[in-house]
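Q&A log
Question type: sequence-to-structure
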Amino acid sequence: MLFILNLWCHKNYLCEGLKRYLIENIKNFTFLIYFLLFCSLWGQIINTHKIYSLKTGELFIPSDFNDSSDTLILFIHFHGKSSTVHDGFLKSRMRAILITIHLGIFSSPYQKAFSDSTLLDSILIEAIETIKTLTGKSYYHKKIKLFLTSFSAGYGAIREIIRHDRYYEKVDGIIILDGLHTDYVQVDSDRLINSAQMKDFLRFARDATKFKKHFILTHSEIIPEGYSSTTETAQYLIDSTSTEKIFSERMFDHNFVQKYYAINGNFRVFGFYGDTAKDHLYHLYNIDKFLNIIRH
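Response status: OK
Response body:
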């Protein structure tokens, strides 16, 4: 029991004086029970984030969400464990609404779902109606700043959404974390990425270079079999926008090390070392770093 309390104190950064006091009183079992109960209740008091199920996805409202602004900032994230995305969202201190959508491990379910051009509208309407019910305020008169983020297979949803002009105009920015692929096409003896599947991403990147949009793209060194890697699609966008690559190592987190960056206006690419499944997941675990770029 002493070891557990000692570890708990260390993890919660308690000062040495309070730590000694707690350990000295460990024999007082009643004190310990009340103390742990207080910690539990205090956690519930300060953690007032709200989570609601939608027909498609989950609505997350941070406790510090500010609904007095004339603009409603809304993020929709595709693919990945919701709690992981929530944690990253909170770390970024983004005062916005978040919707998380997870449809499986491949890009095709996302592509199929959002090939229905009415789906995004229905998700936005349901989310705004839910917020209205909670706050008693209407949000339809507010300007909505919409950002789409994805990890791994989630890019399939973004590809379908931004190919529609009416949605393209609505979306202020996209963040794609180690997940942008295409089929290969054979040209003579060369195997090239399918530029037709990159068309709308290239349009978005070019608008970002002119500060009309935000586009953040990350990639690992993973080489998949049978389709283009995230390194290849990133290089295609870098070349097509005449963006300069700067080789510069930077540690974003333990074992998550940047190899290079390329910035042109609001179009930003970050290449990272690593070719394992764990290296792939680091991109999602560090989503807060990339959200912070937009926040600032």
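Response note: The chain has two domains: 2-45, 50-295.
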